[in-house]
């Protein structure tokens, strides 16, 4: 019998610590160059720190869902996601995505959008704020499909909140039930909006739903194509695309909400980029330590957090909800699911030993 050794948990965060040090130094430098005062420098340094903490708190569930998908992927594709994927997450979602929104909303070129971000941060922030409604509707619908697909699964036999999950598993045989639920909730929320906003909300939510379905279909097609050449290949390019879109949906709320703390695109990119590195580190640790197998309800907590986040994104099209509340709510759910898992392990030591053997 071979003994599998794992790194100490703190060692998984080595690169995250390095990026944190570099990011905070860049934030301080940016603060000094833009304000020329110690107080201004400390203010921007503090904002970068808060943004990083906010991103980490919002992304606990993201890391758990990533780990859940990664454990089905081949080592090659795991490595690709944890290298290329983090580059796309940091630079694509935290820098390119906000620029792309302004490019589309203001009908200007990418260079002009970058200049606008640097020279007129107030106008840049206003355009981003105006684009919040369709972004929240799109991301909310996509994440709602992610959460519902986990619970509406007839093969799911481990239930945390049994009276909810048993019913969901029972009705999972009804074809398209997740789509029906998302469409019903979308129409209900659209009635709370007025005029053109209602139509924009419905259209964006439908695009989010279609994006989920297309990613699922495309992922299945791509992975099936790979299996024709290698039967052992599982969770390749299709799973990679799924995780990238999932990460983007998680990032929508954080990127838009970050403009409430700072209107400087580069300060936001540094703060959220630091947080994204911790998400990567947590994902690797969860996969290599087999944490999801050791704590049976941890995934449940993450997917409940996703469902709540999706509803919050819908609600935010009508009322403002501070991102701190969103992050703490998700972290609290995951904490309760972890506590429930630990209690179950204490009461059932033999099944745990078999799962971790």
Automatic annotation (TrEMBL):
Keywords: Membrane, Transmembrane, Transmembrane helix. The chain crosses the membrane at residues 12-32, 38-60, 81-111, 131-152, 205-224, 256-280, 301-319, 325-342. NCBIfam families: PRK14013.2-2, PRK14013.2-6. It holds the Pfam family DUF475. This is DUF475 domain-containing protein. Coiled coil: none annotated. The keyword Cell membrane does not apply. The keyword Zinc does not apply. InterPro entries: DUF475 (IPR007427). The lineage of its organism: Bacteria, Pseudomonadati, Pseudomonadota, Alphaproteobacteria, Rhodobacterales.
């Amino acid at each position: 019998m071979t003994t599998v050794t794992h790194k100490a948990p703190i060692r998984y965060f080595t690169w995250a610590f390095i990026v944190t040090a570099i990011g905070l130094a860049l934030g301080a430098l940016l603060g000094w160059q833009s304000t020329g005062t110690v107080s201004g420098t400390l203010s921007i340094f503090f904002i970068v720190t808060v943004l990083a903490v906010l991103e980490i708190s919002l992304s606990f569930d993201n890391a758990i869902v990533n780990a859940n998908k990664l454990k089905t992927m081949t080592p090659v594709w795991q490595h690709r996601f944890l290298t290329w994927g983090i580059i796309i997450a940091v630079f694509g979602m935290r820098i390119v995505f906000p620029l792309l929104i302004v490019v589309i909303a203001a009908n200007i070129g990418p260079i002009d959008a970058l200049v606008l971000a640097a020279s007129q941060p107030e106008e840049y922030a206003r355009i981003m704020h105006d684009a919040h409604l369709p972004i929240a509707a799109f991301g909310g619908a996509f994440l709602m499909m992610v959460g519902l697909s986990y619970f509406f699964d007839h093969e799911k036999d481990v239930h945390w909140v049994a009276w909810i999950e048993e019913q969901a598993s029972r009705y999972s045989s009804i074809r398209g039930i997740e789509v029906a639920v998302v469409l019903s909730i979308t129409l209900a929320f659209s009635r709370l909006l007025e005029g053109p906003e209602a139509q924009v909300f419905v259209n964006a939510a439908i695009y989010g739903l279609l994006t989920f379905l297309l990613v699922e279909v495309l992922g299945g097609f791509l992975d099936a194509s790979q299996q024709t050449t290698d039967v052992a290949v599982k969770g390749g390019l299709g799973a990679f695309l799924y995780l990238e879109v999932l990460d983007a949906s998680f990032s929508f709320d954080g990127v838009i909400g970050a403009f409430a703390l700072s209107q400087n695109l580069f300060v936001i990119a540094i703060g959220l980029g630091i947080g994204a590195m911790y998400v990567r580190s947590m994902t690797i640790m969860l996969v290599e330590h087999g944490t999801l197998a050791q704590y049976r309800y941890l995934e449940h907590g993450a997917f409940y957090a996703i469902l709540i986040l999706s509803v919050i994104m819908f609600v935010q099209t009508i009322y403002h909800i501070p991102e701190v509340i969103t992050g703490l709510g998700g972290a609290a759910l995951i904490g309760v699911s972890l506590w429930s898992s630990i209690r179950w392990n204490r009461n059932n030591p033999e099944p745990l030993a078999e799962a971790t053997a």
